[in-house]
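Take one protein record:
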Amino acid sequence: MKRILLVKITSMGDIIQMLPALTDAAYSLPGIRFDWVVEESFKEIPRLHPSVDKIITLPYRRWKKNIKESVLSGEMTQFLKQLRSQRYDMIIDTQSNLKSAFVTRLAKGIKYGLDRQSVREYGAHFAYQKKITISRDQNHAERMRQLMATFLGYEQPKALINYGINQDHLPSVDFELPEKFIFVVPICSTVTRLWPEPFWKEVLNDLVNEGYEIVMPWWSAEEKERLLRLKMNNPLIHLIPPLNLAQKATILTKAIAAISLDTGLAHMAAALDVPNISLYGPTSAKLTGTFGNKQVHLSATGPSCSPCLRTKCSYQGQSTYKPACLETITPKHVLHSFYDLIKGL
């Protein structure tokens, strides 16, 4: 059996959407195993898949903050030593930007990746010895399934998408959860993906009035402040304590459904087969939308620049909120879609 190293460093959603491709490979090539290079903050995600053995963590975000300290501490040397500790039959860069291409180039073995027309960042293709073309005009998860099938030489399975996560192996949490709750994700690391707070308050009030309780996660102090404003001192709206990704996944499995921005936890909901409404303004539901069963994408209907696929809004027209695209998705639209989604659950 070939020894295969995957390079998929970031982001959370992209890493989660890599998992179905591994399930395809395991189905088509029984016994296949993978090692995986991933950003240290997302190391829990590859662990969720049974076909992954060694996880090589790259603390890239910490290194960026203090390169000198990272060099002097020996962390970079340790990472390089671990990366090059063995020779792989295949090193597959599934991220295809300059950062992942550089890591791929450092590893020992034959390098596989996308060609000039398909990479995310020009120049990444120079790192690969074996290259293929895959259309970028499709969902990222499907793109990864095609990439793996092509490189590993099997026909992509036509079976329903399967992220391969055994929910029985998720960690427990040491606090009680409401019996009937909606998992709501009104936070995002990118400001341009945030839905207006008054819109969220309208949705949360309606859900509570319909007899649901709300559970909301957070990471940073700024995100916690945002959630406290949305909580409005309502005892039926709960902020969960700081948890790791696997523990958040555990909570998601217990939710009736989820409502989320275009963020990593939306993809986690899809991976766990949790019914989910997700909102897309500057991003494209077609290209990076949640992928799986019972996933509803609500996309902005304007202005003409949407989806711009940018992290900074350059729209100069009139709007009540920024970004202007997300205000075209109304609370009524979200609530109507949500209640339609959960009928019969």
Q: What stands out?
A: The longest helix spans residues 140-152. The radius of gyration is 21 Å. Residues 4-165 form a domain with the Rossmann fold fold (CATH 3.40.50.2000). The longest strand covers residues 52-58.
